[in-house]
Design a protein that fits this description.
It comes from Citrus sinensis (Sweet orange). By secondary structure, the protein is α+β, with helices and mostly antiparallel strands. It has seven helices and 38 strands. The protein has three domains: 279 residues, Methylamine Dehydrogenase, Chain H; 134 residues, Methylamine Dehydrogenase, Chain H (7 Propeller); 135 residues, Alpha/Beta hydrolase fold, catalytic domain (Rossmann fold, 3-Layer(aba) Sandwich), CATH 3.40.50.1820. 15% of the residues lie in helices and 36% in strands. The strands form nine sheets. The chain has a six-stranded mixed beta sheet with strand order 12-38-36-37-35-34, with helices on both faces. Strands 3, 4, 5, 6 and 7 form a five-stranded antiparallel beta sheet that branches. β5 and β6 form a beta hairpin.
Length: 638
């Protein structure tokens, strides 16, 4: 801390020019947008502004004489083996593994859980300059083929390539101009960290976050180069869904840019229009792909699809924006007279049936028994429920699990033939239950600590389930649960162990803070070393998001552990309105005309931390990523 005393001078930020001439007229209301010019990343003035921001950050970081020590600590904590939950296709198991400091995790394959695993795809070897990133994989039903998507130089656009799994031969297929939509948590690290009143504390956090951000960018940069017979392009906001005959897969993409437009797209800020849904046959050119669906009358629609586990139905979801609503169409693949091959010979879209043709709610398929489909939905249930319908009688819907009074039904996964694992969010803490798929009755409660369930890996035919878990003090655990036993147990299958990290040194506490309106309680997690004195002496980092119905749940962070362990900081997450922590009502309570509630909630959380003695205003830093950057900016100005 003493090493910072020589750099207390005010930071000289580059001046952002205001252009008062840019005015929009919204229904007679004039809105000035003086910084519209910053929306063009290719403009020389914008490049110059960004470069000056970089130079400012570098000027601060170079004066930190503990930077090398921080780098050493962060590197040591990162350098621990990590595993994702395995998934099964055909008679093989697949999983991602990172030995510690690998920029990207490596995909492994094994013939059984006890068999020796071998590397299937190492994205760290796919480009010499580290500009290729592996962003999605999909294995065919017979485990003979791997489809994987690569993004280059941080672009949203991706290219799908194909590999033969047995001999790891990369085919010639390559599908371009595809784009996968990253979740908002992906943008979590692109943050805005600001100190309130105290410059030295801000600089302390800036040093640490700058070093961590270097490691984060490094982890994104490395990746992949292979060539595969089928290359899919114009790939944006897409899924990869194999048909069960493994002859090909469904995907969606945008039309290729017209001649004369920038073909190295990915940094553009204009919206993409006219999404289309395709089927690609292995070993053919992308230009020969079957156009399965398009809707030129609605250019903003986004299409994604999946094939049901019985292989009979193609279910397509249609979305228009980030709202939790979608349409649902389906196509009976078994009813196509000549199969998908028949559409090679003639024009025309697939004969989809419109089961849900309005944006009234969100519908997610859990399972189907022939024509009887089970859905997770928020239809008349802001905290979600499970319903069932027979496609033969599409107007008759039956409730399987009703909406809970307070807890949010986050997910449901069909397992063990006629069961499902449901995941609830209860006061921002996960609850796992095993229920009967037919009638929804509770069979077992699975014990887990306060934390987050990142993945439930299983299919309906599987009796062994893998559950990926993390928390503020648990870097990562993959649990194995055998549902054939009388009382299923959560056994540790793999665990991330960080040498020198002792979770018993820390304490996690949840409080409920009254917001400005007096009637709303805002949940907030407070993480710190044990037995700290509440005398206002601690640096404090408060994080918030509050948008897009996204819940911010407990997770492990190397950088925050460094803050708490070596710098005596307190880390907090305020689960403000606008997120999904209490369902759609909580989301709408911080959206649009009620957006001010987000800022009021966050300010109330800050005031609590000061009044309770955790910190003081000059030691308090607030942070938000993506939508949370708006939150931080608004709170500073207010």
């Amino acid at each position: 801390m003493a090493s910072l005393s020589g750099i207390d001078e005010s930071l000289q930020y580059p001046v952002a020019r205001r252009d008062e001439s840019v005015v929009d007229d919204y229904h007679g209301v004039k809105i000035v947008d003086p910084y519209r010019w910053l929306e063009d990343p290719d403009a020389e003035e914008v490049k110059d502004f960004v470069q000056k921001q970089v130079e400012l950050t570098d000027s601060v970081l170079k004066n930190c004489d503990v930077r090398d020590k921080l780098r050493e600590k962060i590197t040591k904590l990162f350098d621990s083996p990590r595993y994702d939950a395995p998934f099964k296709r055909g008679n093989k198991y697949f999983y991602f593994h990172n030995t510690g400091l690998q920029p990207q995790s490596v995909l492994y394959v094994q013939d059984s859980l006890d068999a020796k695993a071998k590397v299937l795809l190492d994205p760290n070897t796919l480009s010499d300059d580290g500009t290729a990133a592996l962003i999605k994989v999909s294995v065919s039903e017979d485990a003979k083929y791997l489809a994987y998507a690569l993004s280059y130089s941080g672009s949203d656009w991706a290219t799908i390539k194909l590999m033969r799994i047995e001999d790891q031969i990369v085919e010639a297929d390559a599908l371009s101009w595809v784009c996968f939509c990253f979740s908002h948590s992906f943008g979590y690290f692109f943050h805005l960290t600001i100190s309130l009143l105290n410059v030295p504390t801000y600089k302390l956090f800036l040093y640490l976050r700058g070093i961590f951000f270097f490691f984060y960018l490094f982890s994104l940069v490395k990746s992949t180069i292979y060539s595969f017979w089928s290359v899919v392009s114009q790939f944006k906001f897409s899924s990869i869904a194999w048909t069960h005959d493994s002859k090909g897969f469904f995907y969606s993409r945008y039309p290729a840019p017209k001649e004369g437009k920038d073909m190295d797209a990915g940094t553009e800020t204009d919206s993409n229009l006219y999404h289309e849904f395709y089927y690609h046959f292995l070993g053919t050119k992308q230009s020969e792909d079957i156009l399965c669906w398009k809707d030129p009358e609605h250019p903003k629609y986004i299409f994604s699809g999946h094939v049901t586990e019985d292989g009979q139905y193609l279910v397509m979801c249609i979305e228009e924006n980030c709202d939790p609503v979608n349409k649902v169409y389906y196509c009976d693949l078994s009813a196509l007279p000549e199969g998908l091959e028949g559409f090679k010979k003639r024009d025309g879209l697939l004969p989809f049936v419109k089961l849900i043709d309005g944006f009234d709610a969100q519908y997610e398929v859990i399972a189907n028994d022939d024509t009887v489909f089970t859905f997770l939905t928020n239809k008349d249930a802001p905290k979600y429920k499970i319903i069932r319908v027979d496609l033969k009688e599409p107007n008759d819907w039956f409730e399987v699990i009703p909406e809970a009074e307070r807890d949010v039904l986050e997910s449901a996964t069909a397992v063990n033939l006629n069961q499902m694992i449901v995941s609830y969010l209860s006061d921002v803490k996960y609850v796992l239950q095993i229920r009967d798929l037919k009638n929804g009755s509770l069979l077992h409660q699975l014990p887990i600590e306060i934390g987050s369930v990142n993945a439930i890996s299983a299919r309906r035919e599987d009796s062994v389930v893998f559950i990926s878990f993390t928390s503020f003090l648990i870097p990562g655990i993959v649990y194995q649960c055998n549902l054939k036993t009388e009382t299923p147990e959560m056994k540790i299958f793999r665990e991330t162990i960080i040498p020198g990290f002792d979770r018993s040194e820390f304490h996690v506490h949840q409080v409920f803070v009254p917001s400005k309106d007096g009637s709303t309680k805002i949940p907030m997690f407070i993480v710190s070393k044990k037995n700290i004195k509440l005398d206002g002496s601690h640096p404090c980092l408060l994080y918030g998001y509050g948008g897009f119905n996204i819940s911010v749940t407990p997770s492990f962070s190397v950088s925050r552990t460094i803050l708490m362990r070596h710098l005596g900081a307190v880390f907090c997450i305020a689960n403000i309105r606008g997120g999904g922590e209490y369902g759609e009502e909580w989301h709408k309570g911080g959206a649009l005309a009620k957006k001010q509630n987000c800022f009021d909630d966050f300010i109330s959380a800050s005031e609590y931390l000061i009044s309770a003695g955790y910190t003081q205003s000059r030691k308090l830093c607030i942070e938000g990523g993506s939508n949370g950057g708006l939150l931080v900016g608004a709170c500073i100005n207010q």
